[in-house]
Amino acid sequence: MEPLLRVSDVSKRFKVRGGHVSAVDDVSFYVQAGDTVGIVGESGSGKSTLARLVLRLIEPDTGEVVFDGKNVAEARGAGLKELRRGMQMVFQDPYSSVNPRMPIGGNIGFPMKVQGFGKREIRDRTADLLDQVGLHPNHASYYPHQLSGGQLQRVNIARALTMEPKLVVCDEPLSALDKSIQAQVLNLLRDLRERLGLTYLFISHDLNVVEYFSDHVLVVYLGHVVESCPAKDLYREPLHPYTKVLLSAIPSVDPDTRTEAQALGGEPPSPLDPPSGCRFRTRCPLAMDICAREKPALREAATGHSVACHLFEERV
Ligand SMILES: Nc1ncnc2c1ncn2[C@@H]1O[C@H](COP(=O)(O)OP(=O)(O)O)[C@@H](O)[C@H]1O
Ligand SMILES: [Mg+2]
Predict the structure, then answer these.
(1) Residue 51 CA, closest ligand 1 atom number
(2) Taking 80 as the threshold, does the pLDDT of residue 157 lie above it?
(3) Does 276 sit in the ligand 1 pocket, CB within 6 Å?
(4) How far is the CA of 294 from the CAs of 242, 274, 279, in angstroms?
């Protein structure tokens, strides 16, 4: 079955003062309809850039994005409109994506208005969406500043769902919320997935959340995918040294398996001047000579489990 989303060899560099940042470097992955693919990595690893490339908010330098059988870069006019409807995004900051001068109802109804829906249809669908995300229909008349961050993120989720998208891209949807609210919003996203059969690209810096929420996980480091595997394999058998460090930073509840959290050694390298070869080598406890010379390719080390690390390359 052709996946809903296929990202092939996509790269994006930004020109900045003092040179270039290669934010996303030769990234490939796919998302099957109905699945959740999680992307995890520290701040600055290129996650948001990747999301923006998928949604064609920015153009890649190389590579292609195929969504629902169509090359995203070639979409024009009505085709582009349909594509935009099919992919929606929930951003980190719940305040950044609502119009503060418009009541919640207007914010949710706006995409429908643009699509030419009637007044009554918009009102009914808005009430239904508010209900779906655990808010009250009366919230339609509130203004954004009258809602909490968690409520506003529910509004953003409702708005993302108005046009019945095939793919919802969530870019750190919990990061700006209070700890106590994060689980509620995560549960809402999970319930909606079950109820509506949603497909998510779910981005987070929190490996715990990604592992819990996703079917498949991509671990990214400075614009590279370093590991790609089913979520259940991530805990059971992490392969990349970076993934192991990320996992060890999560305290285990089981005292028998609790290990000393391994801190990431060294400074994070400057994205302006990333290390040669493997970009993780300057912080890797197992770095070898070859790691400075050659960039490790992402290779399948076990069925469905790929890793980009010289430790796992077959030597001839
Ligand atoms: N518009 C831009 N111009 C210049 N540099 C950018 C731009 N967007 C992102 N970057 C750089 O690209 C890298 C990846 O950023 P980003 O995709 O936001 O990472 P993440 O979402 O994982 O934190 C960072 O080094 C960031 O500074
Ligand atoms: Mg980001």
Answers:
(1) 17
(2) yes
(3) no
(4) 17, 13, 10
Output the residue whose Cα is nearest ligand 1's atom 27: 44
| CB-ligand 1 contact for 45 (6 Å cutoff) | yes
Ligand lying nearest the CA atom of residue 45: 1
Domain holding 75, by residue range, is 5-312
Q: Does the Cβ of 270 fall within 6 Å of ligand 1?
A: no
What is residue 256's predicted lDDT score, i.e. its pLDDT? 53
d(C-alpha 7, C-alpha 63), whole Å: 8
Average pLDDT score, the chain: 92
Mean pLDDT of 161-176: 96
Does ligand 1 have an atom closer than 6 angstroms to the CB of 292? no
Q: Where are the beta strands (DSSP E) in the chain?
A: 5-16, 19-31, 36-40, 62-67, 70-71, 87-90, 167-171, 200-204, 216-221, 224-230, 299-302, 305-307
Average pLDDT over residues 169-198: 96
Q: What is the pLDDT of residues 10-43, one digit of tens each?
A: 999 999 998 999 999 999 999 999 999 999 999 9
Ligand 1 centroid from CA 7, angstroms = 19
Q: Read off the CATH number of the domain in which 33 is found.
A: 3.40.50.300
| Number of structural domains in the chain | 1
